[in-house]
Amino acid sequence: MSAVPATSIGLRGDRGPILLAVMLSIGLAAIDSTILATALPSIVRDLGGLAEAAWLFSGYLLAQAITVPIYGKLSDLFGRKPIMLFGISVFLVASLLCGLAWSPLSLVAFRVLQGLGAGAIQPIGMTIIGDIYSLQERARVQGYVASVWAIAALVGPTLGGVFSDFLTWRWIFFVNLPIGIAAIWMLLARYKESNVAPRKHRIDVAGSVTLALGSGLLLAALLEGGSAWGWSSPLTIGALVGSGLAFVAFVLVEQRAAEPVLPLWVFRHRVLLPSMLVALVVGMVMMAVTVYLPMFVQNVLGLSALMGGLPLAAMTLGWPLGASQVGRFYLRFGFRPTMTVGAVVSLFGVLSLLTFDSGTPLWHLAISCLVIGLGFGFCAPAGLVAAQSAVAWSTRGVATATNQFFRAMGSATGTAVYGAVFGAVALTAIGDVTEATELEPGVLMPALHGVFIAAVIGAVLLVVAALLMPTRVEPVD
Questions:
Q1: Looking at the chain, which terminus has fewer C-beta neighbours within 10 angstroms, N or C?
Q2: Would residue 83 count as lying in a domain?
């Protein structure tokens, strides 16, 4: 798509309807990730199945994560538009089925289907933005896309509560339909692709299967090991061994594939590798705040669940604030300095977690999380823009999807690592943490402190990863 005057950047410009369609599409997945938690008690009361409740999240995450690289490659082969439309359509069909679910197992199955659609939405949406906007223009567009997540963080929980209390939890899924239909209509009407070569492609089926199998088994082991299965259980060990074998097979297959689903050269690329490492570590560190700060607020400070969500809202607001300003920094100073500053800022925010105790005021937590979000808002978007700019159209889908895939893997890895640290510290205090229904603050605080120390180590690694990024990245096209 040809460049147009800079005055058309934004929702009112020539590309405004396409940008709005991408924002609406990403909003589907963003709101879905925040709205369900609020409505979960109502779902359990209506359908039952408390034991399956965790899989409403895990199943969705697994399906989304393992399909992201596959969709990215398909978009390079067949174009962004058909893959994006397919992903939105699958997501909407699954949303309708979720709203009509009649049992816990049916809801879990439809959530997995929803994840299969969501796997296309975020990476392909970001790839479309990389296609239609230049490096300089993306500096301004980042703020629009980041605002979607801020809105979702504020609107999602509220909508979930309203639907559960005054209508029915089923509307948390039905609300996706008008949003998705509007996005499809705008993409069909306004998005025209000109870079797709009309030739026959050889789809890398073997690579796709081994990659999906390896990453799926690894994610399952990380998400369920130490909780539902236990780290030493045959299920966890079998999943880890199976994942390793699948990844070995994947590498062997990709060395011979004509059009590999995830080319091995991306792991040697001087720009893509640092961007993937940054995404991986951001995903890891973010889970320390997302999972354990609400526990600190409720069980140590003794505040309500609503208050426990305020620090997370601060982090979610800090991210788009940072992302809206990051463009002017990397255009002036380069990617490495910009990402390093962001990593250092987030490190200071994570370090402040070590000062928390039973007397810490809530506003202190919120400021710390805001600082962490600001740092992430500089690191993550700058890394993604650098990756998109360093490759041609024909591999931009793979570059974008790989970045998103590593973020998901980082979140799963962080969940496992912090869970292991938390359990190990608590275990030394009470003997068997699996039998405890509620930990006393005297036990909980040292365990949380151990998690925060692990998060600091992750934040230090984030600084190292940012320093690996080249200062300047020359756009390929």
A1: C
A2: yes
Distance CA(228)–CA(189), nearest Å, equals 47
Alpha helices in 100-134 (DSSP H): 104-132
Q: Which helix (H) or strand (E) holds 396?
A: helix 393-430
φ, ψ for residue 301, nearest 5 deg: -80, -20
What is residue 306's predicted lDDT score, i.e. its pLDDT?
62
Structural domain harbouring 375: 265-477
Smallest CA-to-CA distance from 346 within 323, 379, 325, 375 is with: 375
Rg of the Cα atoms in the chain: 22
Amino acid occupying residue 459 = A
| Segment 294-350, tens digit of pLDDT | 778 877 777 766 676 677 778 878 887 888 788 788 888 888 999 999 999 999 999
pTM of the model: 0.80
Do residues 348 and 215 both lie within one domain?
no
Residues 218 and 175 in one domain: no
Would you put residue 258 in left (φ > 0), alpha (ψ -120 to 50) or beta? alpha
Let me know: does 112 contact 56? Beta carbons within 8 Å.
no
pLDDT score of 92: 94
Contact (Cβ atoms closer than 8 angstroms) between residue 369 and residue 349: yes
CB contact at 8 A, 386 and 337: no
- Which residues of the chain register pLDDT less than 50? 1-7, 433-437
Residue 164 lies in a domain: yes
Joined together, the tokens standing for residue 116 give 């299969």
* Whole-Å CA distances, 299 to 296, 304, 335: 5, 9, 41
Residue matched to tokens 């689903």: 261
